[in-house]
Amino acid sequence: MIQRPTTLAQVAERAESQEDFGRLLRDWLHELRRASSRPQVTAAIAETPRPLRNLFTGGPAADAWLAAYAEHLALQAGTPPPKWAFARARIAPEPWFAEAAGSPALRFAALRQTPLPFKRRNLYTRAVELSLGLRPGRPAKSATENQLANRERQQRFRERRKAELIELRTLAGASDSPRPAHRHSWRG
Questions:
Q1: Taking the domains of the chain in order of start, what are their residue ranges?
Q2: Model-level pTM?
Q3: For the chain, where are the alpha helices, taking DSSP H only?
Q4: Is 182's pLDDT higher than 60?
Q5: pLDDT at position 137, please?
């Protein structure tokens, strides 16, 4: 089973056609919903994706989409956008409208409603799918990661208890001499 891409670099690496790119980008957006911390978001956009402009007809627009999503995501997460996202090669050479080309009303709505990171790259769309569920604190761990952490914690606990037991036995062995009996006197 092929895993969904978790980074924009993986989207670009696997894309061989415009159709591949669209599917992989949707898969990446789906995976992005699992991100629960800023470091996870940063990891999803940090690596520079390979250029797609010479691979297929819509390659220049695909390069622009990668950069636009990287900047938009970084702004949503409150982290600095990656530097690669601002390269000139990451701007679509022609305006690209997601809505129907023949409808001036839809074009006008796209011009008004498109987020700035997309406008900067000559991409116009009213709908930018990006839902982040960032939570304060540590990032969420998988069940496997939790099991491993629990196993390690239990091992450390056992080692501490073993060391304490050895120390107690050593102390008990050093004091094998008889102890005077303590008598308690109760004054009444």
A1: 8-124
A2: 0.69
A3: 8-14, 18-32, 38-45, 59-77, 104-113, 116-119, 143-174
A4: no
A5: 62
